[in-house]
Amino acid sequence: MNDRFFRPVGIATMSVALVFPVSLASSDRAIAPVVTEYQIAQCRTARTANPRGPEDSLIPYVVSLRNTAVSTDRPTLRWNPIAGVTEYRVSLLNGDRVLWTKTATTKEMPYPTDQPALQAGIDYRLVIEAGNGRSSQEEDSQTTFYLLSPSEAATFQATESLFANQPATEKTTLLKADLYAGARLYAEAIDLLEALVKQGTNSAIVYRELGDLYARSNLHIRAEPNYIKAASLAEGDLTEQARIQESLGELYVAIEQRGEAMKWFTQAKESYEKLGNLLKVNKLQEEVTSLS
């Protein structure tokens, strides 16, 4: 099995013996008002692109699929909708070679049935061009995706089948999302957690893991509000707050917002001091010092 995908560890949380990847909840992250994606973009620099992900909510950046594996050879394709735009040109590329181009009128489309299905071993890239002239290629760094190989898919499906007789609870969905993330099926893990959000979840862990997944997909513009929402839901839980504060610091480092990064790392360090976690305190002090 290709080592780039599946690095599982044992978790004995459910009533059956399952094998899961390292939980996204193990990544560590404070509280600010929840703001819209548009406001987040406008309060930053005037750039329309960032080397580590889109900052401008006015471009039709790719939402799915980006920096992810996929388990199906005909996945759903999604992008950021632009107000007032009624038509998008959707192109699938392999390198610089255009494999096909279709027109869509919404923010997503199923994989075209009249085009060849995805093949394993190929890195694909989506390009979205909005009717107003804006393009997903305004991002400095373009993202790719790929289909699991038959052996990787078989391994993943064998593990996923252990969920077949499990109740469809929030806890089970979180574990399943961790399984997907461990196989680098980030887009499919995001879909699972976004479904919980639509159902009205009040779980800080759900929002924190969504933040993790969007960050791994180079979608910091969507990771940030999820971390902030997670923080608001985690009030009173110092451990969870510390994790979210640290993750926000990491996110702001990634998008080159040094002042914000220092603020969140400092808050995380203070939280870990209260928790008595000296290893984290020392690590975060190094982060703050490097940013000074």
- Unreliable spans: 1-52
Question: How many strand segments?
Answer: 10
Main beta sheet, described? 3 strands, antiparallel
Structural class: alpha+beta
Estimated radius of gyration: 20 Å
The percent range for strand residues is 15-25%
Fraction of helical residues: 40-55%
* Gap between N and C termini: 43 Å
State the shape: globular
Structural descriptors:
292 residues, three-stranded antiparallel sheet, 41% helix
Please render the helix and strand layout as text.
Blueprint: E1 8-11, E2 18-21, H1 37-42, E3 62-64, E4 68-70, E5 76-79, E6 88-94, E7 97-104, E8 108-110, E9 125-130, E10 145-147, H2 150-160, H3 170-182, H4 186-198, H5 204-216, H6 220-233, H7 238-254, H8 258-275, H9 278-291
Parallel strand pairs: 4-10
Antiparallel strand pairs: 1-2, 3-5, 5-8, 6-7, 6-9
Helix pairs in contact: 3-4, 4-5, 5-6, 5-7, 6-7, 7-8, 8-9
How would you characterize this protein structure?
A 3-stranded antiparallel β-sheet has the order 3-5-8, with no helix packed on it. The chain has a 3-stranded antiparallel β-sheet with strand order 7-6-9, with no helix packed on it. Mean pLDDT is 83; it is low at 1-52. The protein is 41% helix and 15% strand. It has helices at 37-42, 150-160, 170-182, 186-198, 204-216, 220-233, 238-254, 258-275, 278-291, and strands spanning 8-11, 18-21, 62-64, 68-70, 76-79, 88-94, 97-104, 108-110, 125-130, 145-147. The longest helix is centred in the last third of the chain and has 18 residues, at 258-275. It is built from 9 helices and 10 strands. It is globular. Helix 5 (204-216) runs parallel beside helix 7, helix 7 (238-254) runs antiparallel to helix 8 (258-275) and helix 8 (258-275) runs antiparallel to helix 9. The chain is of the alpha+beta class and 292 residues long.
